[in-house]
Design a protein that fits this description.
Layout (H helix, E strand, L loop, with lengths): L4 E6 L13 H18 L4 H6 L2 E12 L8 E10 L4 E10 L4 E13 L4 E2 L3 H8 L9
Antiparallel strand pairs: 1-3, 2-5, 3-4, 4-5, 5-6
Length: about 140
């Protein structure tokens, strides 16, 4: 099995809180950045999604904070999709420091919404496979 898709991020000073560590809400931004980076790497732009009449939605997110991050820390944010049989899928992400220490784990439940009907599509895996030029990045 290959390594999950990941993107590098440098913690910026303005993202830290009064204790000097990364503000808790920024972890969600990092996770979102990695998910959109994966979509782009797989050949799926926002315009391509809209043209296909669908858009990704997050239904639930859990963040487990393991170690603090400070301004200037270099991290990688991974992104791996897990497919089930229904309308939803899971995205597992890990924020890892340069020394290999896990700083946070992010798990999201998502879906793909039909932009006209405003409902989840019944088989998001099929849509991702059809839209992607590199479906292997989604484990498809």
């Amino acid at each position: 099995m290959s390594e999950p898709f990941s993107v590098p991020v440098t913690v910026r000073g303005y993202e830290t809180d009064t204790q000097g560590h990364l503000n808790q809400s920024v972890y969600l931004n990092y996770a979102e950045h990695a998910r959109w980076s994966l979509l782009q790497a797989a050949g799926i732009s926002q315009a391509r999604l809209v043209a296909g009449g669908v858009g990704p939605v997050v239904l639930e997110t859990t963040v487990r904070f393991r170690r603090e991050l400070l301004a200037g820390d270099e991290v990688s944010v991974s992104c791996a999709f897990e497919w089930g049989e229904g309308k939803t899928f899971r995205v597992r992400q890990v924020v890892t420091k340069a020394d290999g220490t896990v700083a946070a784990e992010v798990e999201a439940v998502g879906g793909l919404m039909d932009l006209t009907g405003r409902r989840l599509v019944p088989d998001p895996r099929r849509h991702f496979k059809e839209l992607a030029t590199e479906p292997g990045l989604f484990g498809l």
